[in-house]
Amino acid sequence: MSAITRDAASVITIEQAGQHDAQQVTLRGWLYNVRESGKLLFPIFRDGTGIIQGVCSQKEHPQAFEALRGLTQESSVIVTGIIRSEKRAPGGYEIGVTKVEIVQKVPESDPYPIQLKEHGVDFLLDRRHLWIRSPRQAAILRIRAEAIRAAREYMDGQGYTLTDAPVFTPAACEGTTTLFEVNYIDDQKAYLTQSGQLYVEATAMALGKVYTFGPTFRAEKSKTRRHLTEFWMLEPEAAYADLSDMMALGEGLVSHMVQSALKNRQRELETLKRDTAKLANVRPPFPRISYEEAIRILNEHGNSAKMGDDFGGDEETLLSSEYDRPVMVHRYPAAIKAFYMQPDPQRPDLALGFDMLAPEGYGEIIGGGQRVHDYDLLVKRLRENKLPEEAFQWYLDLRRYGSVPHAGFGLGLERTVAWICGTEHIREVIPFPRTIYRVYP
Ligand code: NSS
Questions:
Q1: Residue bearing the CA closest to ligand 1, atom 24
Q2: Ligand 1 centroid to residue 155 C-alpha, Å
Q3: Residue range 406-431, pLDDT digits in tens
């Protein structure tokens, strides 16, 4: 028995079934389910690209029939048969099974733990290594991959060069309360990165337009549907760029990610029953409102937010519900924003930063803006924020040697993909989620 049978018919994936109507093919995958009806069996196979229903007759194909009868869920199988167009079948095609090779049979004494019924989310998260086999989870992971592909395509097309940032860092980028400390070699202290920003600021001064894309870490004690402790961020940074350049880049990037998913992952979005009409309008221009306007809108809707408040989930949801595409809120009070944000020359109490809020309650998907480029101001900011100056000496070098106005942002991949997929919680859109109480499996 060979797990990579090459003899019989041409080996295809379920996704390709439509191109092989009336042809004999071989599929390699797993048994998702099998239903028995007298002398006929109706197995459902999956192979990671989709699911397909089969029909197998005892009279015509006794070998295949006996192999499939009572076969346990998730047993691995290589199946040969004829593809037939069948309007009522999911995917529009079925396979008339003629031959079955069992690669591994799941023992009846130890059946596959995830049955085709509702399970609690903790049960599923404990078995995340198996849960990802379900059609819904597989569809989400394919959409995630498409979002990454499209994002990279867009950034590269805009002339940005990928320059990766390190994961071990000597200092905080986004405040000290969510830092993961690691015991580095010989008891040196290091931290897992919260953002690649400081490093892309350096590579921007070397290459002009750059981005980093990688995992970032925050010891978030929050147990919300928008927080992970390990998440992926795409962070562009450009020399000689300002706040409005970054808002334009952000709306172009997000539109391209959404439109690419709609175009290239239609089947997966259908599997998720995503209302894609809600994504169709996601094209530039996105509305831009100032923080002060945002406060006014919130107050008009009965929310008591006042100048100086940061926005939480409720405020973000209320604001974004006003629009059919993401909204960008700019010029927040400097006092509630990170140490590196450049003050507005007209209103030094405001920061030249922006957040992009996704529709349908998915909250902030982008945060960024213009950076402090003046050496003295940056030193002052570090001191006000009680950050260790020694660890930031290399960062200050960027202001010592040829400092220029520059700007960038960070796009949270999981929040963006959760919105595109319409999932309840962002933990479903990363293969192995890390949250406040979970590092297993
Ligand atoms: O804290 S951010 O708003 N901004 C930064 O880290 C900047 N240093 C990025 C930059 O300018 N280069 O985080 C950026 C985005 C935010 O909008 C969210 O979409 C996402 O990162 N984010 C998260 N996603 C999931 N889980 C958690 N805990 C999380 N925190 C931020």
A1: 412
A2: 18
A3: 999 999 999 999 999 999 999 999 99
